[in-house]
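Ligand-bound model needed. zinc ion.
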Amino acid sequence: MPTPNIEFAGALLDALREASRDEPGVTRDAYGAGEETAHAIVREAAERLGLSITRDPAGNLFMTLPGKNPDRPAWIVGSHLDSVPHGGNFDGAAGVVAGLAAISTAIKAGREPSRPVTVLAIRAEESTWFPASYIGSRAAFGKLDAEALDLPRADTGRTLRQHMLDLKLNPESVRRGEASIRPETVKGYVEIHIEQGPTLELEDIPIGLVTGISGSFRYRTGRCLGAYGHSGAVPRRHRQDAVMALADLAMKLDRFWEENEQPETPLTITFGQVATDPSQHAFSKVPGEVNFCLDVRSTSTSLVEKTHEAMLVFAKDIEERRGVRFEWGPRSGSTPAPMDADLVQRLEDIASTKLALRTLRMPSGAGHDAAVFAANGVPSAMIFVRNQNGSHNPDEAMRLADLETAIALLTELLVAEDDN
Ligand SMILES: [Zn+2]
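Prediction:
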């Protein structure tokens, strides 16, 4: 069994951290300087490995080892290189680095894969920058809706189209839906990613195998409208308190969550932003308006829809009882994406037989590009690496030894003799 080239991975991760340091943490802004620098660093490493390199119209970077039979359907392994502002170094980058490290490992061991292996650095996975999910991977399949190009980036206010043009990319080709990945030319997609949650750490297992990725419904611009009033003078029965009404909705949804979640179909419900209007709110005023966003996720399509229906029923009841009105704004979201059962089984078999490694099957509550590959008919799998302190924060951590285990597992899959 080849020894994973963890020195290669460690050095590349260090270089990425150095180049995108933005204390606290790192910032790799999608279609901005941070992501662009990360792409340049990864590209240079791929050139040193002798890989052939292309960039598609959306800026996704394809780094390919042709293998013994370059015409056979390829493995694609990779992840994204953007990060949230002041995020951690491993969310996304670990998967791209692990892909290159697996190829480096195979080359060093003289174990040429039987088919092409493409390491893919995907653009703009984090929806903090542009209010859309999976921009880079959807564009790669020619499936990014044209309107997405008009979305403004949260910090610059400039559109995705303008940001693409800044980098000499081709938004017009993206708009026409020209695909750079044809599903029939892909054997499978494998994404290594940090877990971002506490499960593997608590279970003391270094590697998780993802069974499916959650779908969601989201409201980014929800409002609850009531009436402002004097905090002391208006009796309860005459109040139209928007904050109490939203709190009522939140508690009803929390109860629904507790009662409807199952171990095999987890649910999450999050009011990530809740705010009264600073130009109108005051210490002694009944709040007449509250703005909120809502993010609901599950690996079960029916549970996502059931939660949505329940939410509307709860809201209607609250509107009648409390004299308020909910305005939801546009609904967005994604459908749940099951991973490929055969590919997951194969990874589990390799882990147990060749690496004597116990793995844990688990759903992914967070969204990943693998969902887009699965939705486009590519057999897909994700290898989760145990990590500490979650992600999307500067304290995000990961032991290199755990990444090394994931690289070993990936390498074994790529160089398998019986890879038909
Ligand atoms: Zn990620």
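The radius of gyration is 23 Å.
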